[in-house]
Design brief:
There is one protein chain. With about 425 residues, the chain is mostly helical. It is about 80% helix and about 0% strand. Helix 1 packs antiparallel against helix 9. It starts with 11 loop residues before the first helix and ends with a helix.
C-alpha cells in the first residue's frame, strides 16, 4: 500500500512507528471525547446542581494537575530502559482504573445523591488527570526519540490529528447517547466504555519499536538528584527568549480557562438554550478543529518553525471568544468549538516541539518539565478566576477579560519571541 505524501520522507521503521502511534492516539482520542471534561463532565456536574465556581475548578484541575506531577515523572521514569513498558504499565495500573471507577460510581446507588457526586466526581477527575500528568513530559521525551527532528512535527501532528478525528466520533456518540437515553446511568456507561477503549489503545503503543541508542543516550542507573534537577531547571530558564516564550504562553493560557463555560453559555437562554446532548455533540467538533490544526501546525512547523503554530493558536482563542460575545445558537456553538480545537492543537504539536528545540542541556526531560511547570500557575489561576468572575459578574465580563488576555498573549508571542531555530543561529 502506498504511503500518503505526508510520510514520503520517513524511513520504513519511522512509518511503522508513526502508524502505530497514530492508531494508539486515535483510540485514546475516541475515549477521551466520550467523557470530555469541557462538555460531558460539565453537563453532568451541572445536572447535579454544580455552581459556576465548581465548574471553574474543572479547568483549574486540568491545567494544574496535568503539569505539576510531571516533576515526579523525572524520578519515577528517569531510566530509558524499558520506558515503553513502564509507561504502558502505569496507565493500566492508575489512570485507566480511575475512569472505570467513575463509571461504576455513577451506576451505583451513590449516583442518585447529587451532593455527594458534586464532590466525588471532581476528586476522581483530579486523580485521573494527575495520573496522566506524571507521564506527560516522559511521554513527549520518549516520542522525541522515535522520530528525527526533520519529520518529528509531522509524525506527532498526524498522531494527534488521528486522535482528534476519532474524538469527533467519540463526542458525537456521547452526545447521541445522552440525547437518546437521558439520565445518570448513560454517563456511567460512557465512563466504563472509555476506560475499556483507553486500555485497548495501549496495545498499539506496546508494539512501537524503540529506536537504537547511541552511547550519548545510554540509560542512566539512578534518578537525578534534587541539586542536579535544580541546575538543569536554572539552565533552561536562563535563556531570555525561552522566558519570553513562557510569559506569552502563560498570558494566553490564563485567557483560556473558559472551556467548560462554553457549554454553560450555550445551554443558557443567551446562548440559545441548547440541550445537554446538543452541546456535547457540538463539542465533538473541537476535535475536528484540533485535527486540522495538528496536521497543519506539524507540517508547517517542520518547514518554517513551530512558533507560527503557537501564535495562530493564541489568535484562535480570540476568535472563539468573539463568537461567544457576539453570537448564539447551534451554528455559533459548532464554530466556537471548532475554533477552540484549533487553539488546543497548537498546545500539542507547536508547544511540544518548541520545548524540544529550546533545550540548552543534555537532559531534555527536565527542560520539558520545567517549561510546563511554569505554565501551571496561569493555567490554575485562569480556571479558578473564571469561576469566580462567572458567578459574581456573569459570562459576558468573563469572556471579555479572556479576550483581552488572548490578544495580549498573541501579540507578545508575535512581537517579542523569536523562533528557536533563528535564535540558535545567532
Amino acid at each position: 500500500m502506498r504511503m500518503p505524501s505526508l510520510f514520503k520522507d520517513f524511513a520504513p521503521d519511522e512509518r511503522r512507528n508513526a502508524a502505530l502511534n497514530a492508531a494508539g492516539e486515535a483510540l485514546w482520542g475516541f475515549q477521551a471525547a466520550m467523557v470530555a471534561s469541557a462538555t460531558v463532565l460539565t453537563v453532568l456536574l451541572t445536572d447535579f446542581g454544580a455552581s459556576a465556581r465548581l465548574i471553574g475548578v474543572i479547568p483549574a484541575i486540568e491545567g494544574t494537575l496535568i503539569v505539576v506531577p510531571q516533576l515526579a515523572g523525572i524520578w519515577l521514569f528517569h531510566s530509558q530502559t524499558n520506558r515503553r513498558r513502564n509507561l504502558v504499565a502505569w496507565h493500566l495500573a492508575f489512570p485507566i482504573p480511575v475512569l472505570l471507577a467513575m463509571g461504576a460510581l455513577l451506576l451505583s446507588p451513590a449516583g442518585e445523591h447529587a451532593a455527594f457526586m458534586r464532590s466525588a466526581l471532581p476528586v476522581m477527575f483530579a486523580a485521573f488527570i494527575a495520573g496522566i500528568g506524571v507521564i506527560v513530559a516522559v511521554w513527549m521525551d520518549w516520542l522525541a526519540d522515535l522520530f528525527r527532528p526533520a519529520i518529528r512535527g509531522t509524525a506527532i501532528g498526524v498522531a494527534f490529528a488521528a486522535a482528534a478525528l476519532a474524538g469527533v466520533a467519540g463526542g458525537a456518540l456521547a452526545g447521541a447517547a445522552i440525547g437518546q437515553w437521558p439520565g445518570i446511568p448513560t454517563y456511567g456507561f460512557l465512563y466504563l466504555a472509555a476506560g475499556a477503549i483507553a486500555a485497548a489503545s495501549f496495545a498499539c503503543f506496546w508494539l512501537i519499536g524503540d529506536p537504537p541508542r547511541t552511547p550519548q543516550q545510554a540509560p542512566v542507573s539512578r534518578p537525578p538528584s534534587a541539586a542536579e534537577t535544580r541546575v538543569r531547571f536554572r539552565a533552561s530558564l536562563a535563556d531570555l527568549n525561552f522566558r519570553r516564550y513562557l510569559v506569552g504562553r502563560g498570558i494566553a493560557a490564563a485567557g483560556f480557562g473558559i472551556m467548560p463555560f462554553i457549554a454553560i453559555y450555550y445551554r443558557s437562554e443567551a446562548g440559545g438554550a441548547l440541550s445537554g446532548g446538543g452541546v456535547v455533540a457540538a463539542g465533538s467538533l473541537t476535535a475536528l478543529g484540533s485535527a486540522a490544526g495538528n496536521l497543519a501546525f506539524g507540517k508547517i512547523g517542520d518547514l518554517l518553525g513551530h512558533r507560527i503554530g503557537v501564535i495562530v493558536g493564541a489568535s484562535m482563542q480570540a476568535v472563539t471568544l468573539l463568537l461567544l460575545l457576539t453570537t448564539s445558537g447551534p451554528l455559533s456553538c459548532a464554530l466556537a468549538y471548532i475554533c477552540a480545537g484549533v487553539c488546543i492543537s497548537s498546545t500539542f504539536v507547536s508547544h511540544n516541539n518548541i520545548l524540544y528545540e529550546t533545550c540548552p542541556h543534555d537532559h531534555r526531560l527536565s527542560h520539558i518539565t520545567v517549561g510546563n511547570m511554569v505554565l501551571a500557575l496561569p493555567l490554575m489561576l485562569g480556571g479558578l478566576l473564571a469561576g469566580q468572575v462567572a458567578e459574581s459578574l456573569g459570562l459576558t465580563p468573563l469572556f471579555g477579560m479572556c479576550l483581552v488576555l488572548s490578544l495580549g498573549g498573541a501579540l507578545w508571542l508575535a512581537l517579542l519571541v523569536r523562533d528557536p531555530r533563528e535564535a540558535g543561529r545567532e
